[in-house]
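Chapter review: from sequence to fold.
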Amino acid sequence: MSSNNVSLSKGATAAGILLFQYFSKGSGVKPKVNLDLQKDNPKVVHAFDIEDLGDKAVYCRCWRSKKFPYCDGTHAKHNQETGDNVGPLIMKRKEA
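The token string follows.
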């Protein structure tokens, strides 16, 4: 390979790397966690009285549950598809 071809290859590789870095950054907007739940609200907030929780309550943290804000196990599919490791928030009463 001649020195011109080597220089051309190095230049093309450098240009490719720079283009990849530029386009892989996108617009700088991070992806949303909440894709479709209560999008008409400026902020999704749920409040629960501790006295009303019963012995145990399991809440969704992946935002994919069909029973949101309660967990329905959808995080397992989400984790498998994305490589994420999210799980539910489990609240339970201490045994006296």
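Two observations follow directly from the output. The domain at 31-96 is CATH 3.40.5.90 (Ribosomal Protein L9; domain 1). The mean pLDDT is 83.
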